[in-house]
Design goal:
alpha/beta, 12 strands, 12% strand, eight-stranded parallel β-sheet, TIM Barrel, 384 residues, two-stranded antiparallel sheet, globular, homotetramer
């Protein structure tokens, strides 16, 4: 049993986002940190550190244009040299001045065309980097009732999605992200999983839904959505982070570790614990150091996964079928209440890693090194 | 213009629920009211009063078994004699002791069979009463993580829905209701529109989604869902009520009249303002008198509809296409800010009704009459 | 260290509520369970079982009139014979027909007088039973804007609270409960801790605030409130339960064990881990068996407390003062991630108890015994 | 009656915020607009336009350091020349790099000292500008459980508030703002009205609470808080804006005009409709033009006020005292459903203003003028 669990944990793959290594903040302030990368190459170097100490973060997601370079093939080779690889390509159609009233759902056809061209360019970059996944997040929406026509915006969205879908090559897919609100404050054009699901369903198997754990209304049962999408074959992956209020983008598992465990349980239960599901991190380290923040998130996902793997499926099924409410809940909670940190430490040692990634990173001197070396030039951030 | 609007308002049809005329309350207390009906016949009589004074509430929904009678054809004739007709049939698979852990999603196949038989019986009653709509609300869900298997419950739900679908006759349909929570407090088996939509989509055109305006997570944009479902041809109707917090089941439009207006606007915009959409009320008059409570709800829907019809579509489209945020919002708000009560009073007078339904009901003496006559015998309520 | 923690855990006192042993449910259905008590004496017997197996639940709260008896002194002696004692007295001014529009805040002075008389009678019962704590929950509020005057209702509330306060004897106090909504759906007269605090502050040291963990708006940081009230000397105690959505009244710690841990941490940090703080349970076992449901809740509180006691205060203070965000969080999480069940099992064995209370209860045969014996007569519930 | 109402409306005073005329946005993007002010003088000029067309916005709030100038007396004279005056002074202790972990509640005493010095400097500016109100908003809080000590932060907060309080001169006061979350995502140091109230209460009459209508948890009844604070003499004023989700900072009344009406009703009912209550706007015009956005907000407040003044107090009190739920609600809704725009147009004309401020502004040519003139130099925004 423990052997199976360790084997399963050994196969885990978690993707870090390049933008987590740059500066981020709220609308009130971005607090700059020292040693932050100044270009995509330095971001990859930082991502490689996360992988070096955890052993389960071998890919890094890019964000275009924040990670725009002249030679994407060279960037991919650079990743390879660092022992990692390029993961998903994230499009950005929310920061150009033209997108104030929307990108692919903008009432102005010229703006829509521009946005679509960017999306297609992202597929070009997939071709160049070998990435197989395009992540689509649309901040599109309206702030005021009446501002634009809700239905027409769906028509425009459908048209753009179809165009991107048609451009996808063999072995490529896109993941459509939904979000309740922010930056749109009245109506968001893809506000919930149902909307994303309905659009993807019409297009075909290369379109799937991605669940960002911070993008739901208060009280939403996220693991239900995970279970439902997996049953439909429509779960493409996750943007993991955590939140107490809105899209807080805190470290994964920091706000509600029990929820993270329940989500990972449904992933496993639903047959989604494999390479077809993209387990991506997406968070903002507003006040904590970036690299150890990512390491902590990776470890929290590992711990939740280990606990989920520990659930005694036979005992659970038996109690469930007997209608034993307390018994079934007890089986479930037994796994959650187990301290899996020793198991994970063991796993790391067997893989030749330090059993304590946080401490190993601290001792590595990397933090001091980048502070000393990365002096001058604009730091990477959401706008750069 | 005003003529068109009045014509449209004259065609409006709003369905009252039989259970709104009986006693209702919270888990803390049901406050009994005097004059409340003691059987389905008396409920129909009360529903007829709502129609008599408003002119737009010609049908009444039944709830089985609360409205169980020996002779449904006779009940239908009784309705006809009162100038109204039987509307949707509402199933109830949440009150039998066997349903503690679910009805059609119960882990026990015998309970599932029992629940399904009830649903099929409801279709029999549709045949007998001439009703064309079956409303399905499942309280099914779990209270504790691990209590039952989320995915298996979806399998069971799909199986039951398919069986009901197959039983539907020509011209019959079912509407599947979703609800975030209550009475299930961890996971509800049909918690959101996406779940209802996905199930209906697989079955065919006789299965549609019904939107209860009190069944969403805080912050959910309901009119977006309305617009989306209409675009998909999947909006079957509404259970109207209003809420400040959860499923409060207050009088329609009492908590947020602007939201009701936005919903009615999307109904009209999306081509849903016709007999294919069921505009049903579903509320609990815990503390206010039942019949005038229904009259007020009907009037509030009328007022919201009138305002929505008043939106200057050409001016709105122009401002929207120009990206004129303030201008478009202003066109929209102009309609909402208009006092449409004089228009509706006029409409009523032209239809031979009293311009003030609330006052006409008060003067009718009906309230005093039922208090005097309905003495003895158990009052109708949710459990009877 | 472990010795101190065990000593602290050994001193813990958790109060069970008599009503948790009777039937309860939602507005949709109360599912009756077999073996449920039929009178206060049988409720005390069940509460004694919880104490017998956990060793930390020596008192039971009464609810008047649900626990009305002719001879309260005899009831108190009965408790004593069972090895437990009467805890807080809970008033009930929400179920009489007169309270439809409020009790102490009702616009009708006669109803207010009646409600106040009930509250004063509860103090009489305190005198008779030796209880030192009166718990006041007012369901008072309004369902519709305009229904009553918000400010006048505060005046009436203040008047009633002052009258009760004046009646309190030496060593007696009342705890004022707040709740966001339900059964009032527009405005609740004591909706939040601020309102309860302001009223208590004016009265004096015998009036304190009680925190029901299910009574807040979504997103509310409950441990902040706990810390704040303790700093003000105004935290009287807890009604523990858990929730995913509203006032779900699930078993304590079932929905968010991390939150329960954070709350217990602030209790300890703020000097509230002693007999002046009442740690009461308040939940509805709608679908799970009552006695083991209570045992589970008691154990969950114990586990959260053990983890909170394990927090390394020195290390935490150091990291906090250095602004080490990740370090401080890690110290905090180390305690939460520890499996404290072995420690608690040890503690129980040292106290002569079975290390596994759930299993011990199951093996005791008590459940079968009460099912066999408690036949005939109306079961206890919220209305009886 | 109408005369009294018009007189009351004629006395209304609404304060615009200088920062609303600069650029603002979300963490994703600030969309710059043409013609935006480049310094405080230009902001005042824009604020004067709002007053010119509405007649009820004679003061403008400053924000330090965004509105830092060398000669505040000169700035005040400039305002006077424009026909307006300086209103509240808003402090800013959230944008300096030192404030990453808090300002007055920071664990580092040097940072706390720096923050306090800024607050005291703001009082100096009050002396120089003649402003009588200091608005204190603290973004202080923590993102992770354990990050800092909740209680110690309250001690530090209390200390800072006392120091500012002691510095206030005759006729000066401060208003303490509360906010549920953002930019702090775990615990905010002043998260709710209760916290602000408790701190102010200890200090004395120069400390009052300010209600920002976007700073509450979902479902919070804001008008209850308004009524409660007025009853306690602790309502200092408002930051008006509107929201569908979080602190969206949309135009006042745009999201829920009925709520705005209910708030204004409680202001009037509670004796707060006078110069002791500061009616300030605080919003972000992310996508709409700034000046007409402010005009719209001012007009929306006026309309809500007019409706609130129209409530028939005698009829309402009668229905309330009789427990006539529907009757009382109807009296309340009659006022809300009235179209007050003609009344306000009349009022404006009598005051020598254009009856339609939006159209008058459009025709004034001011928008074109500032676009033409304000070329070159950094635009004002939240960071400048």
């Amino acid at each position: 049993m423990a052997t199976d669990i360790k084997a399963a944990l050994g196969r885990q793959r978690i993707e870090t986002p390049s933008w987590a290594f740059g500066n981020s903040g709220t609308r009130f302030k971005v607090f700059a940190q020292r040693g932050v990368p100044r270009d995509p190459y330095e971001k990859l170097a930082d991502a490689a550190q996360v992988h070096r100490h955890t052993g389960v973060a071998p890919t890094v997601a890019l964000h275009i244009p924040w990670d725009k370079v002249d030679d994407y093939a060279a960037l991919a080779r650079h990743a390879c040299d660092l022992g990692i690889a390029i993961g998903a390509i994230n499009s950005n159609v929310f920061q150009d001045d033209d997108y104030m009233l929307g990108s692919v759902t903008n009432p102005d056809p010229a703006v829509r065309r521009k946005a679509l061209d960017h999306l297609l360019e992202c597929v070009d970059i997939m071709d160049l980097t070998g990435s197989d996944t395009l992540k689509l997040w649309f901040s599109d929406g309206t702030n005021y009732p009446g501002q634009d026509d809700l239905r027409s915006r769906q028509d425009r969205l459908a048209e753009a999605l179809a165009a991107v879908y048609d451009r996808l090559g063999e072995g490529q897919r896109f993941l459509l992200e939904y979000k309740l609100f922010e930056p749109a404050f009245y109506a968001t054009d893809v506000p919930d999983w149902g909307t994303a699901y309905a659009h993807c369903l019409k297009l075909g198997p290369k379109a799937q839904v991605v669940v960002d754990t911070g993008h739901h209304a208060p009280g939403t049962n996220i693991e239900f959505i995970v279970a439902f999408l997996l049953r439909e074959g429509m779960l493409g992956g996750f943007d993991f982070n955590s939140r107490f209020y809105a899209d807080d983008d805190l470290m994964v598992g920091a706000a509600d570790p029990f929820q993270l465990f329940r989500i990972m349980y449904e992933v496993i239960r639903g047959g989604g614990y494999n390479e077809r599901t993209a387990f991506m991190l997406d968070q903002c380290h507003n006040i904590e150091p970036k690299i150890p923040g990512q390491i902590r998130s990776v470890m929290n996902v590992q711990e939740a996964t280990a606990k989920a793997l520990l659930v005694d499926g036979d005992a659970l099924a038996r109690a469930q079928s007997e209608g034993d409410v307390l018994g079934a809940n007890a089986v479930f909670m037994d796994a959650f209440n187990t301290d899996v940190r020793p198991l994970l430490a063991e796993l790391r040692e067997e893989a030749g890693l330090d059993p304590d990634p946080m401490s190993a990173y601290r001792r590595s001197g990397y933090a001091e090194k980048i502070v000393a070396e990365r002096v001058g030039g604009p730091q990477a951030g959401w706008g750069a």
